[in-house]
């Protein structure tokens, strides 16, 4: 993998050393900028060391959204946040002149217990929140085809979710809460333009988010949950905020075009002026709290695969790989085995596995989860070893095979 390096001072121009694989920055540098700068310097991977003893967090902060987005779209190397204790151990090893070999392996990051993958996407109908909203909308359009194939084939169970928060009781009657919340302050969203005096209000976003939840529920009732993908992508195209079409009338036009009953969706939505809990939105708020290994959902977008939060690029190929990794071996659908999913990690240096060039035998086996080093069976003879540095012929296996033939 190359050598591990670290640095502690802010750097504003290109760095001049080779193979930097380990880095540390000051606190005032964005997570995304840390990784982008390291990539620009020639790093093949980045580890960011937490400066506090605390449970690890997602390397994304709400206040970073706009500035970080311009770096994120240009990042192509893997990165991870590690806890302070492990980071100190690595830094000490580097300072002591030890050879540090760092391997980042996400192949087992997603559990794969059976032949169906359950995944959920925490999303938003707001299309005016800047680069993050643009990225999310692009992903929804790009991923729709694969998502619908998986759902129609019974290979996946998808559930959309929407983040809301509540207005403190003391401010329920304030102008801000009235414009950003429904159901008397119980369910709120930020103002799309960050300007209370113009454009759409946060409550408009909450209402449309609720409508999209109801579209999913009604589509689920007729056993066509994949219609949700058609609705959200069509709504984004036909009812954008910038054209002043982000409203009930436009939404109902889209609903009718997809063959769903408007009355059922209206009944599901209820009255946003009611001073009571809404069962769907209440369930959404409860679901934001992490259970088991999933963790709390605090940022948008968040993708969860088999109850594990996905960490990676929000792109069709990257997300599809994560979902495909959730299937038990040999149960994956054809969409996971397509040419654009197969990267063949065995082509470069034989994937770091054992090989016998003379006999053209290799222990490298490529899968969509990544390459696996396993001693092969060749001409009926099973090789034995660790698959990485050693594979030897099983003499007994070869003898029995020759005896049988």
Automatic annotation (TrEMBL):
Q: Give membrane topology per the record.
A: Single-pass membrane protein; Single-pass type I membrane protein
Question: What keywords are assigned to this protein?
Answer: Calcium, Disulfide bond, EGF-like domain, Glycoprotein, Membrane, Repeat, Signal, Transmembrane, Transmembrane helix, Transport
Claim: Signal is one of the keywords in the record: yes
Identify its protein family. Belongs to the VSR (BP-80) family.
Show where the PA domain sits. 28-90
**One Pfam family for this entry, by name?**
VSR_TRX
- According to UniProt, the name of this protein is Uncharacterized protein
A GO cellular component annotated for this chain's UniProt record is:
Golgi membrane
